[in-house]
Amino acid sequence: MSESYPAFARMNQLIADGSDLLELASRPDLDSVLATLDYDWRVNQANAQSPLVPLFSRHGFVESSGSAVALSREGILFLSRLLVRPRDPHSSRNILGTLDSKYEAKGIISVGKNSIVVEAVHRLLGSRFVLKLVRPGASKDMLGSVGLLSGLPDGTRILKPIDLVATTLTDALGKDVEVQCLVFPFAEGITFREFLSRENRHLNSQVAIAFARQVGSALAALEAVGGYHGDLHEGNIIVDERDARLRFTIIDISFDAMGSASSEICRNNDLSNFKQHVWRLLAAQRAAVPRSSLRKYIGTQNYRRIERILSPETTSFRQICEILEDDRDYEAYLEEKKRFLGERFHDPVSFRLQRYEEMTDPEMAVRLFVPLEQLMDKIQGFANVYVSGNRGSGKSTYLASLGFFPAATSGTVDFREIFGIYFPCRQGEFRPLAKREEWSDETSRAVVTNAMATKIVRRTLEVISAGVASGRLRPAASLDALRAFLDNLVPRPGLVSVDLAVQSELDNLVASMVRVEMDEIAKLERPISITARHDALTLVRFFETVRQTFPDLTRTRFQILFDDAGSPYVPTNVQAVINDLMLSSNPVFCVKLSAEKLTFRFMSSDGKALEEGQDYLERDISQILFIGSGAGGLKREELERYFRRIVQQRLEAFNYAATDIVEYLGDEQISHEKLLQLLSMRTKNAYYAGWTTVWNIADRTPRNLLELVSEIFAVAGIDKDTEPKVVSPRDQDRAIRTISEKRLESLSQIPGAVTILGHEVSLGRRLFITTSAIGSAFGMYLRAERGRKRRRQQLAIERNDLEELQREAETMLEKLITFGILDGNKLQWARDDNVKKPLYVLNRIYCPAFGIGYQRDEHLKLSRGKLEQLLVTPERFIRDGTRLLREAAATHTADLFHYKDQR
Amino acid sequence: MTAPEAMSQADWSDVQVAASIPEITSGLNGIILAAGFEERSHVWLTEGKFRPDARCVLIRFRNNVPGNRQVFDRYLALAKERFVAENIHVVDLRQESPGRMESELGAYLASLPRSVVRLGIDVSGMPSYAACMALKATRFNRGQHPMTVLYTAAKHYNPSYEQYRKLIQTEGADIELLPETMALEMRETLILDSFSGYRSQNAKTCLAIMAGYEAHRSTGVVDTVNPSLLLLLYGNPGAPDLEWRLDLSRRLHAKFERGRRTAETVVSTLRFEEALNALDTFYDKLIDDYDLVISPIGSKMQTLATYLFWERYPEVQLNFPLPIGYDPERRPTGVGLSYYVDIQPRQTLFKNAWPAAL
Asked: What mean pLDDT comes out for the span A78-100?
């Protein structure tokens, strides 16, 4: 062992060398033996005949000898360690000696090798002090050292002595001994040891940096005047959390009262202790946030600083201060990061009029957003709103347009009126809140409500803080009210902030809330005990406080925006809590959400079904963009203008030579009647082309529109510098069919499973097959129109009864609607029995893939049985679903992929 | 072929070929393995020589794959020939609640006597999510001891070289038509609570995929995560006669590179430290601005790298795209070489990197 570990070998040697002293110290008759020395503290004289003298001499404790011997400083210190001690270790009575007339001892704080530390009260002033009785021999030049400490700059976080006095104590043998006493003001707070071990520390992520700054700079100042602390253990750092601000103060400075240890050893011990304290602080944080590494939690800049501070190359406190102030290392890292990301991550191929970022970054999507006024009015009003619509219809963008994005220079709405707090639920933020087996319904409700309240508060503060930092929001005159609110919101001991040099006050609040949220999520893994009960009222109070605090938000009303809030992104128990928030009718905040059809359950956590029109309003984008007469629909020209504007905005934004899409696509396409004729004949010149065709096929979906136009541009090689010219119908047709076929084929990659005929099968595959069957059937109906004077296109399925579908068929129908393949919003007035019956219209984006027209002239009327056949066994439906299909099957092989053989 | 960042910081012991399986297993106090339907999945059980008091944990698949029950019965019979009956423990991997496997395995491991110090985990028959759960249960319940990860390669994998030739003839550089794979179509993206990580406020995501040959699963996870950045880690099988597999994987994933801001790198399918180092390199530059999500759809050893990376950075989320089932007919066949690697105890795993040790 000793060969492997030199440090242990040295320690073993020291113990062996001092074994005779240890033996002496442990003798039961110690006082009697020491009495033989007859030591006089005042004149430093001991009896030369004492049997202890040889032992003392061996250890260098004797300075001169003769009839009476004098002890060296080390000898005096050794003797004082044995003889100067409290009579009763548990009592401070008589411990102060002659100082007792001035101070009343209240308790012994510590009895150490070099000093005894006592808490005392000034008898006259009544104020609290800490008296440090320095053992004789522990200091070489106490007065000089105290003088040196006076050179420390003001504000240094070291508790300096305010006085140096002498007192006379009585040693264990009854002899007077004069002792120097340092008088320190009493430091309020808890020790660093207590701070580290305390439960529920809402340490914000920057606490280690705050510690390093405060304690490091204090020790650097000490180092600069040639001093050291000497005993920097966890009890000698006081943590003061008064005024909700974290302050670290070094106490009990032992400079020049370290007995036999050399100055260099003492300085190294300071550095080593300091590094260990930083380490412990980080270890405590790491343990408390099990779902995050320190790198992520404290951020790269501070991580690198800490890494350098803890490095063996850092050998002085001056270096530590330099590391904390010097940003060059981090700037070099940022440069390298920029280079690395630029070199390694490649931009995708040109999307022409689309930007890949808008699919992933709502802020970018909002920048390119063209709102439809009628729709925007309906969505932005202060009410709970469910925004629905086909995939790509712009649900997320409409919702995001209400959000406050700090970096955006302007917004679609005025944040002074509408302040949207945007949650992109698709990122998985809410998944950990899914109900667990062991939770009761009530536990789930309470836990999720608390977590949601914390998330909303945290997110709101984050965007406000970023808004203030970016200059979009004016800062608050005072954060006191907000701080007081948050202090009550978070579990005990409440908020603790680090100094403003490390973090602004607002960032302190944000960092604390981030930590509180992490704690709440981490707690879910353990058996739950509900310690707080937040609800909508908590949020109302919070938002009212925010209004009072930030001058730009005094009139605003808050809208909590949950984008993609359907399953599986938001578990149903979390949806229930969102519904609870919607039910809390109040004038301060409302809830808006987007979700795919039938994926959000409007049911509160206590089982109340929310009523559309009463508790919330549904705004179906595809429905609002439906062309129709009267109040229910949009005029054809309005929709055309809106879609033209969407394209125009992008042509302008990306500096295309022309901004009118008609200059590229033309609008002289063949009539729809002519197109139907050509499609029914399967002629090669049945071209989908021209602006009117394109925006109709886009089927009220901006993303479809942009994809179609972009693909046409790609096929024709049009970019921003191209002279405007109308792309040939052939090229347009090729591009349109490509997009349509891609859309159809991509259905098969939709994840999920459904049960069909008792077997679990791929949802994507079934959607693809069923859509193919529908499109192929419509295609065969069109082909059957060949030779007729006026051809009519089947584009919808109409129920000809109202009977309930069997479960598997119903599920498939729901999925076809959820994924926007069928539009299930329409009802058809049936003249035969005077009732309205459901109508399911095929999304027109698939029409080119099936070689069919895009206008709905006719409906395929199906009974319950036939519809079930289509939904459950589409392969059979295509052969005998209707008379026409049976006839077609008799003449040629009808299968699902019939559509592929169009021309 | 292997990217430079993958080559740096190689401070792990190498994955080694198991020259003698009995020699390695006789040093173990127990083995954890899954009753998979591939031949390679039971090599360590069949050829291993175990101590009389050694434990055997069998992971039983509870799903709708035909023949699972018979396969498990064969494993159980094999285990009974090698272990005392009371030392055989069965843990279920249920399709409807996969996360329970970790807690059940963890509870069993925690109940073992202190004399059980060295466990081997055979990942050959485990899907990646089960491998991650088995690793976590072991390392969090027996974290003070080293463990040994065991693996046996198959001889023939799907798709075959012939399929590859046909695909590139018909499809060219970007293969849209997917080869038939053992994993059927996507059911869902599984995010186990244990590995759900921490989503920070910025909500921008980088998705790292250990890309294999099941591009439909990659599609599923890309669709679920909708990442701002995509990092594709292609697997390099190492042997020159297998380089076509790397080429196939690239062609299968080319469509992602066209549609998103993407980086790609190549790491060994076997030497997991390459994947670990590559992830570390990208993490270092991304983590302040992005949340990192990793989807291990590549090799088993890349799954090991993914797990170890998560252990180091628990804010990282692991996503497992699950198929609706498996087609045993398309399973890898034959038995190739067996490998093992010793993993240091969790507490000292990253002892040279102070923050991870904390």
From this structure: 84
State how beta strands A557-563 and A418-424 pair.
parallel
- pLDDT confidence bin for A800, thresholds 50/70/90: confident
Q: Say which residue, B51 or A800, is predicted with more confidence.
A: B51
Distance between CA atoms of residues A855 and B95, nearest Å: 45
| DSSP-H helix ranges across chain B | 4-7, 21-25, 43-47, 68-82, 100-111, 128-141, 161-171, 215-225, 243-259, 272-286, 300-312, 354-357
Interface of B with A in 213-252 (CB under 8 A): 216, 219-220, 223-229
Find tokens 């609800």 and name the residue: A535
CA A1, distance to chain mean position in Å, is 48
The nearest alpha carbon in chain B to A455 belongs to: B201
Q: Is B24 helix (H, G, I), strand (E, B) or coil?
A: helix
Q: How far is B203 from chain A (nearest CA, A)?
A: 7
Handedness of CA A342, A343, A347, A349 (dihedral sign): positive
What digits encode the pLDDT tens for the residues B137-168?
Answer: 999 998 888 899 999 998 887 788 888 888 78
Facing residue for A753 by CB, picked from B187, B284, B317: B187
Separation in Å, CA B53 to CA B21, B50, B229: 18, 8, 50
Residue window 290-349, chain B: list those with CB within 8 Å of chain A: 291, 312-315, 317, 321, 324-325
CB A386 within 8 A of CB A425: no
Report the distance separating Cα B21 and Cα B46, nearest Å. Answer: 10
**Tokens coding A258:** 């370290």
For residue B224, the model assigns a pLDDT of: 84
Q: Quote ipTM for the complex.
A: 0.90
pTM here is: 0.84
Q: Using CA of residue A45, residue A51, residue A54, residue A60, what is the dihedral sign?
A: negative
Q: Which of A347, A424, A764 sits opposite B185 (nearest CB)?
A: A764
Output b/e per residue, A445-467; b: 16+ Cβ within 10 A: bbbbbbbbbbbbbbbbbbbbbbb
What is the structure's pLDDT at B11? Answer: 36
Alpha carbon of A751 to those of A388, A673, B219, B317, B319: distances in Å? 21, 38, 9, 19, 14
H or E element, residue A469: helix A441-470
3-state secondary structure of A189: coil
**For every residue of A477-521, which 3-state class applies, written as one string?**
CCCHHHHHHHHHHCCCCCCCECCCCCCCHHHHHHHHHHHHHHHHH
Question: Which residues, listed in sequence order, are joined to residue A62 by a DSSP beta bridge?
Answer: A71
Closest C-alpha to B146, from B345, B12, B350, B312: B345
Stated length of chain B: 358
**Quick count: other Cβ atoms within 10 Å of Cβ A755?**
12
Tell me chain B's radius of gyration from C-alpha atoms. Answer: 19
Residue numbers of A between 148 and 207 with CB closer than 8 Å to B: none
* Alpha helices (runs of H) in A198-346, residue ranges in sequence order: 207-224, 263-288, 294-298, 300-309, 317-325, 328-344
pLDDT score at B357:
35
Q: What percent of chain A shows pLDDT beyond 90?
A: 52
Count of CB contacts below 8 A, A vs B?
144
Is A294's Cβ below 8 Å from some Cβ in B? yes
DSSP-derived letter for residue B97 is -
Lowest mean per-residue pLDDT among A801-805, B86-90, B130-134, B260-264: A801-805
Q: Is the pLDDT of residue A328 over 70?
A: yes
Over residues B2-15, the mean pLDDT reads: 48
Q: What is the pLDDT of residues A506-534, one digit of tens each?
A: 988 888 888 888 888 878 877 777 777 88
**Separation in Å, CA A10 to CA A6, A262, A886, B101:** 6, 17, 98, 51
Distance (Å, whole) CA B306 – CA B279: 9
